[in-house]
Amino acid sequence: MPCSCAKRARAARNLAASTRSRWYLVLRAIDIAGAATETVASMSRTQEPMSVRAFRQALEERLATRSANELRAILRGMAGEITPTERRAFLACLESGTDTAVVPKQDLLEAIRRLAGELKAAMKHAEYWEDQGEWLDEEDTLGPYAKLVPPVAALFDRAKAVFESGDLPLTRAAYQELFALLELEDDYGRGIRDTDLEGVDRREAVARYLRAVYHTTAPAQRSAVLFECLCRAKSWLDGPRPMVDEIVRVSTRRLPSHRAFLEEWIAFLHRQSGPDADAWLREAVGVSGGAAGLAQLARTAGRKHPRAYLDWLLALEQKRKAREALTAAREAFGALRPGLPIRAAIADRLCAAAARVHDQDALRAGRWEAFAAKPDIERLLDLRDVAGPGAERTRNMRQAARHLQDYLRRRPGAHPAEAWEVWEDAIETPAWPGRSTVAHAHLLAGDWKAAHTLASRDRPLGWSSNESAQGLVATVFLVLLSGKPPEALPRNLRELWRWALGNSIDVVMREGEDHERLRDRLDGAYAQALSEASPAADEQARLLTWCQRVTRARVNAIRRPPAPRQLRQGCGAARCLRGGPAAAGEAGGSRCIGGPGTPPFSPAPRFPAGNERRAPTDRSVTDR
User: Fold this and answer.
1) How many domains does the chain have?
2) How many other C-beta atoms are found inside a 10 Å radius of the C-beta of residue 473?
3) Smallest Cα–Cα separation from 551: which of 527, 577, 587, 581?
4) pLDDT digits (tens, 9 = 90+) for 365-415
5) Distance between CA atoms of 529 and 480, rounded to whole angstroms?
6) Which contacts qualify for 131-136: CB closer than 8 Å, 24 or more apart?
7) Does residue 603 sit in the same domain as residue 470?
8) Domain enclosing residue 28, as ranges
């Protein structure tokens, strides 16, 4: 007998709740029956996190617009995507006549404790299993514990079902026991982690636990208890700290006494200190008072909470109030002392607002503020791009070089990467430019003498670090002397060019798309700068002589011919492209393409017998 429309709708809701890992299939199937397929197809490809509240609201909106026949078509389409092992569960969802299934609550805590006992008992034999080779390698954190993973995942599912049934005291106790189980580890640091639990969303699990804490704590103690639990729950997550907004959105039910709690929560957080309290305070003020509340927080306590200025600017951006954002950014610069790294992030927001209203003067000022606060290669290029051509751009780069030299003299003693774990980002950590960054400023300004003076003070080793400018400067001089744009260089000189640009970038950015993008930006900036350069003939001769001297010094320092091969070939290519023969030792095994009649590169020099088989030292390998 055909089911009614209402029953089909309830079945669709139950299916959505029980198959959380495929929630996007529900929305996609509904959209296939109607319109807006492009948006949902994009969602299904990216699978971006979506809160329970947002999902349920979107689901109810779409179900309300569908007829009984359309809902049948949707469910048949979903049935076609169900795997064979999940078909019985799918049919069971369709047979449910209520929105909430019967939840097995009995003995949940006892089951968790029993499983924790089994895990502890297994961990007592960790040394025996280690000797027997039960673990395949050092990356294997499960070994004999793998058989306990499915029962643990099932217990997390039961805790979720208890939460959705409304039994919040049991939810709180169950999640406390489950996360304690995940913290167990043997003498070798091995155990079951939430990343081992396929299908368990740890952030949602933490949010459900915190929501249960909120509901089961008396209002008078709620702020203190929730703060303590939030701090503890942070250690359960690998990503960003948990936020109160996640507690609100993990359920479709309204958070009781939310407004009164926010007032007490804000007052409580004002008495706390540290990055976590700062983040939760700014979140609460933003929810409670919006952009106006953040503005008040920035103006009254901005020095203690400088990120309030940044949140205020972001709130204005979201409302498309670019003019107000410009005013707010200028107010922030007046309140925060010069040199604070966060001024760079504020300047970035000022630049975004200036670009939106086409205010070039504000954009130039913002680029300089960003560079002054955090002088790195990317902001150096931003500063160059916003300057006018010719003399203005040269003046900008010379000013940037002077600022970099001053910044390096007073640079902090620890690498900023050590502070990232505190703030979870680099907004308040200082920049860490190297001597190669100063060299970029000199070279892009066309100040060959200053670049030469800087590089001459460096040793012929250590070129793979951005703390050395010598490799970069020598390579740029060779490209300059070749008379060709970077994209038209001979292969050996092109390889040396890309290598030198990559090494000039801070080591923490030497991977992935960011590294390639920044290197390409440098390549484009130099292509333009070198095309406008025209050093005199005697200066070209001096630069080439210096490059050859540096090459010989590096060869002698490394004492291994293969290491500086590209550098020797680069010197030979530069000489040939200028119309002269390659000097002895500037070999590459290919012919110079500088012009007709140019002799081939001579063979690579060989060291005296006994040196060519010498084992490389650690220094020669790591510093080359």
Assistant:
1) 3
2) 31
3) 587
4) 999 999 999 999 999 999 999 998 888 999 999 999 999 999 998 876 555
5) 10
6) 135/190
7) yes
8) 5-95
Q: Are residues 160 and 115 in the same domain?
A: yes
Radius of gyration of the chain (CA): 32
Tokens of 36: 């807006």
The residues, any chain, with a CB within 8 Å of residue 462's CB and separated by 6 or more, are: 468, 623
Contacts of 567 (CB under 8 A, 6+ apart): 474, 475, 496, 551, 554
Q: Of 73, 95, 117, which closes a domain?
A: 95
User: Distance between the two ends of the chain, CA-based, in angstroms?
Assistant: 79
Sign of CA dihedral 255, 256, 259, 260: negative
Domain identity same for 25 and 167? no
* pLDDT tens, position by position, 167-213: 999 999 999 999 999 999 888 788 888 888 888 899 999 999 999 99
The pair of three-digit structure tokens given for residue 81, joined into one six-digit string: 């995507």
Give the count of beta carbons closer than 10 Å to the beta carbon of residue 187: 10
Around Cβ 333, how many Cβ atoms within 10 Å?
Answer: 18
Segments in 457-506 forming alpha helices (H): 470-482, 491-503
Asked if 137 contacts 75 with a C-beta cutoff of 8 angstroms, the reply is: no
Give the C-alpha separation, 255 to 614, whole Å.
72
Q: Cα(99)–Cα(243) distance, rounded to whole angstroms?
A: 29
* Placement of tokens 């025996």 in the chain: 128
> Token pair for residue 171?
């939810």
List, as one string, the DSSP characters of 264-296. HHHHHHHT--SHHHHHHHHHHHHHHHHHHHHHH
- The tokens 């569908």 sit on which residue? 66
- Asked if residues 347 and 366 have their Cβ atoms less than 8 Å apart, the reply is yes
Beta strands in 395-436 (DSSP E): none
